[in-house]
Each structure stands twice: as structure tokens, then as C-alpha cells.
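Project standup — Tuesday

K.O.: blocked on the structure for the chain from last sprint. Re-posting the sequence here as requested.
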Amino acid sequence: MIEIKNLKFGYEEKVVFDGLNLTIREGEFVAILGHNGSGKSTLSKLLVGLEIVDEGEIWIDGLYSSDETIDEIRKKVSIVFQNPDNQFVGATVVDDIAFGLENRQVPRAEMIELVAKYVAKMGLVGLENSAPHDLSGGQKQRTAIAGALAVGAGILILDEATSMLDPAGRADIMKLVRELASDEKRTIIMITHHLDEAVYADRLIVLNDGEIVKNGTPIEVFEHPEELEKVGLDVPFAVKASKELLGQRVISKICVTNEELVEALCI
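H.V.: unblocked you, prediction finished:
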């Protein structure tokens, strides 16, 4: 679904990527991790054409990203930022969800049906006529995600989408993302520095100063926590606890989620 070849990009004062190569498969749920300044948010902007590559190639669902194709690519990729207030344009929840559909000239009857579908799917029933800015943090992100999904983009990018939420709001959005990853069959790219969220992804990509330093399943990435600590990342509690318990022969494997740890302790 996404192929990046020898990507080079930088700002005047800093080189961000110097020959990045990456492939993401259709239907994959990928978490991109890294400390601040590692390049993860810049990568998301390059994928949707908010930044333009200096050298190299980006291919999205078979389309080469260029000035000529960017409009088509943006039909294939939707992005939700950490502060949804910055991307709201509608006066009400339904107006905002419908905005992208109107721009694509979706017939009104189909638009009404799609808006109702994602209002229900995102748990926004009863808030249809509320102003987005009056919603809670979690409800705002649900509205932003509903708008991104309604246009039918095959790739959903969540750029630090939970960073401004409290723990309950973060858990709520992560539950939703996990449901989307299993039910919607979309390609999901989650950019985060919360490793306890990343553990639910199919694959983790760890960036450090624009380079991929780890690329694998959660268990493959977390089995060497010292390597993550070197690039400024911690490991989830479940990994730390299970490594200790594994050494004491209390359990028989390393666990990456709290649910797995509880299950291992109950056997």
C-alpha cells in the first residue's frame, strides 16, 4: 500500500531523512515510534503531501506521489492530528463529518447515509448538532476520525492522536483504533511515543534521527529493551514485569500487553 524508496528530506537547519526505505502492506496496522525530533510526524506530512520530498520516491497504492497525483493520493490517505481543533471546519458534528464528502461531490442521499453510519460507529449519537469545539477531547477525536473514515480513504494516519487526552480518553480512542484495525481492513499508521499503545499494532517501526533502528512485531522490538532505552524510549510495564517473572520461571514467555501478562499469570 505504501512504498518509500531512498527518501531524502530536510529543513534548512536539519536533515531529517537521508535515504529512508520503507514498505507498508495493505491492511497492516503499523505504529511508528520515536522521541521528539526523530522524524515520525514529518513522515506523516510527506505521505499526505504537506511536505515535498527533496529526493527519492513515495508510492501510495500504486501511485507515484507528485504534484500531478497529489489530489488522487489525498483521496487514498486521511490524517488525524493531535489537536482536532485545528482541522474542524463544520459548525456541527454532522457538518464536519460531511465536509470531505461534499468536497468529493458525493450524492446527498449517500452522504446522509455515510454520515449516519460513522456517527453511530464513533459513538457520537446524540451529539450530531453539537459544535465540535464544545465536545470533550475524546469526542473531538472521534469526530475527526469519523470524518477521515467517511470519505473512504484506504489509509488512515493517526499523528499523535491521543497525546492531548487524559488516560481514560486515550484508552477509549485506542479501543476504537483496535476495532478499526480488525474490522475495517484499512491500512492504519499510528504515530505515537506511547509504547503501551503501540503494543497492539501488527508491526512497530522505531525511528531515531530519521533512521529506522527497529522494525518488527511488538515482541521482536521489545525483547531487547536496552536498545530502545538508547534512543530515548522506555518499554511497557508488561514487558518489564514479564522479563523479570520469566527469569524467576513464574511465567514461560515475554508478554507485551497487560492482558497477555494477566493470562500468563493465571495459567
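K.O.: great, moving the ticket to review. The two ends are 39 Å apart (CA to CA). The CA atoms of residues 185 and 245 lie 36 Å apart.
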